[in-house]
Structure formats: structure tokens, C-alpha cells
Amino acid sequence: MIFIKSASEIEAMRKSGEVLARIVDKLRSKIAIGISTEEIDAAAEELILGENALPAFKGYRGFPKSICTSINEEVIHGIPSGRRLKSGDLFKLDIGINLNGYFSDCAITAAVGTINGRTRRLIGATKKALDLGIAAARVNNHLTDISWAIQSYIEAQGFSVVRDFVGHGIGRDMHEAPEIPNFGQPHAGALLKEGMVLAIEPMVNMGSWEIRISENGWTALTKDNLASAHFEHTVAVTAKGPLILTCLPVGRRSEG
């Protein structure tokens, strides 16, 4: 069942999303050579609790940390540890919060130090794919119009979309219906309606779309050990078009 949110619920989710965007904006400055991923996790948890919110990931199905930190060939669900970032790393931060009973979810990919041109193109393509997916989240479009917008663009750039993990609905629960694949033919699946709220999140591999799961039971890695990128926003479907909830008000955004 896909939940339709009322105007007041979307406003509550907008507040949650803006708080999350503010946290992510502050964490960007900490992504640097030499910092450990558990130090970033500790900073994230402090910021979350300082906003009177709760980390959505900590304890979720046993996940041990407040954020996911994935590096290079790690696609998603990397567990923060003592591993330190070095120049050339591709760092992915995936973070969610619960503010007053409403969840928001967001992910960014950042270059650490100097990266090669193809890796930089991977970041740009994944970010653009998210923009295209969001643009397709319109009333009376179908769910797979989002999927096709992402897949068709990514494959035209010579990259591949992960098929084992998907985006999702979000609201009172972190994961709600519907699942949102990043691949599929257009004009299929559920009809998009005003009041739906979706976490759209392209996960894009430099090489094959195939993944494997680490021995820790959580971290997904590319099967060919090539790099992967990940971006995500929480988006409301409205009569005026898609509304990104996990962003700062205009004039308060940092680039990156």
C-alpha cells in the first residue's frame, strides 16, 4: 500500500528534510584526507541529536552506526570504522533521520583529494541521473518513468545502474512502498499521485551492475571492484511538480 501524505504531513517531512540537509551541509566540510569514517559518524550523530532528531539507521535491522560510509568499490551500506580517507577515494555518505516521527533520507558522493577524470564523470553522471529521476516524479507519470529516466541516461554515459537495491517510499517509516528501481521500461508500475513521498537514489557503477555482499553482511561492493557513486533525495509529488524535501532554502546551500 502506497501512503498518500496530507499537506500537514508533507510540511512535517519538509522540516525533517531541511534539518537533514543542514546536517549534510555541515558534514561536507569534514570529508577530507586523513579523517576516519567513524569520526564522520560520530560528528553526524552529534549533529543529529543536537537537532532533537534520531539517527534513522542506528539499530535498523541491527545496523551498528548512525550513517553509512562507503568508499570506492563499496556501493552502499558501508559501516563506519577506523579506515581513514586518502586522496583519490570516492566517498559516499548515506544518512537518514527521524524528526518528530517523520523520516527523511539523503546521500551524497564526494571526491577526496585528486581523482581521475572517469571517476569525476561518474560522480557527475550519477548526480545528473538523480536530477532526471526527480524531474519524472510528476502527477500522472508512472513509477518506472523515474526508473527509465535514470537508466537511459546512465547507460548512455557508459555506466551501469545497480539492480539489487532500489529507492523507496518514505514517511512515518524509513522504508515504505513503493520500491523504486533505477532501471525499467517507461509507463509502467504505479501511477504517481499528489501526496506520495519518494526516496529516489541512483546507485551507479563504473563497470558492471553486478554486486556482492561483504563478509560483514552489510556492505555491498561492485563485483568487478570498480568504483560506484550514489546520490539520493527525499521528494514529494505535488500538483506543482516534484518538491525536493532534503535541501536547504535557496541562498543557504553549499556547493559540492
Helix content: 25-40%
CATH superfamily: Creatinase/methionine aminopeptidase superfamily
Q: What is the strand content? A: 25-35%
**Total beta strand runs:** 15
CATH topology: Creatine Amidinohydrolase
Q: Multimeric state of these chains?
A: single chain
| Secondary-structure-derived class | alpha+beta
Order of helices and strands, N to C? HHEEEEEHHEEEEEEEEEE
Poorly predicted residue ranges: none
Radius of gyration: 17 Å
CATH hierarchy, class: Alpha Beta
Q: Report how far the terminal alpha carbons are from each other.
A: 36 Å
Description:
With 256 residues, the protein is of the alpha+beta class. It has one domain (7-244): Creatine Amidinohydrolase. Helix content is 27%, strand content 25%. It is globular, with a radius of gyration of 17 Å. The N and C termini lie far apart (36 Å).
